[in-house]
Amino acid sequence: MNEENQVSNVRRRPILWSKGVTAGAIASFITAAMIIVSAPNIVYAQIGSMATLQNIQATYAVSIIPGAAQMESPYHYYPSVIAVPTGTTIAWFNNDFGQPHTVTSGAPGAPDVGSLFNSGIMPATANSFFQYTFDNSGEVVYHCEIHPWRVASVSVSDASERRNNFELTSGVGPVLDLTQHPRALLNFEPLTVPLDRTTPLTYNVTMMNSTDTVFSETFVTSGESLPLELVSNNNSNETISYGPDFSSTGTYHVEGPFLKGNEEYRITVEIAAINASPPENPIRDEFTLRTVANE
Asked: Which of 71, 73, 163, 165 gives the lowest tally of CB atoms within 10 Å of its CB?
């Protein structure tokens, strides 16, 4: 079964072309959730709805996909390799209905298993949920204790760049190695606009290489910074955007063949509207991202 058949109801918007459906909108599975907040060996659970998902303010959704318990499944956690800035809260959803799973830090059998986080048994019910905030940089491997052949990783970076109007934090810093990280989360935090988690903010983001615009898109957050994941997918003929991961919060994604190795890109970000009204003065900055790859 390929990714397109595993992930349905993808919420997407075409940027440059408009055909086909790709995997990525994992949050489309989420209609209700059992929320599990865990420290090692301690698990608290309650039944919640989408409103509750907003209240926990997770940034990024990872799905334990349908069929994940089967050894022949190509995925278990999706996405399985991600790169995020420090401070990112990841929420894992058990979408493998009828099958219990865990989200447990460390490699299977390692002496430090579960020392960083351990969900405990995620119930075999619709959309059971676990979250963890990555406050320290480094490479974190995790696995399922019930299906220990299922291993994934989170690369966490404390890289940041500050301009006049925005601070950019990134899962990879100023250089994106596409060989290691085909997807990287960037977070654009306004410095001159209060973030009240209520007032709608409209962001325009444009990415250019040396000659062309590779994407230009508008995103809206509920009075929050803009988490935007760049996803390199050379198997696609189009570039699309989708998200946010939750009903009105969380990460947006731009996916497609727009990222090439060994190039320099200029990313312009601006706040085009605050509560649907243009700001009195321009709120805009430009950042640079360089890509490398083993051809």
From this structure: 71
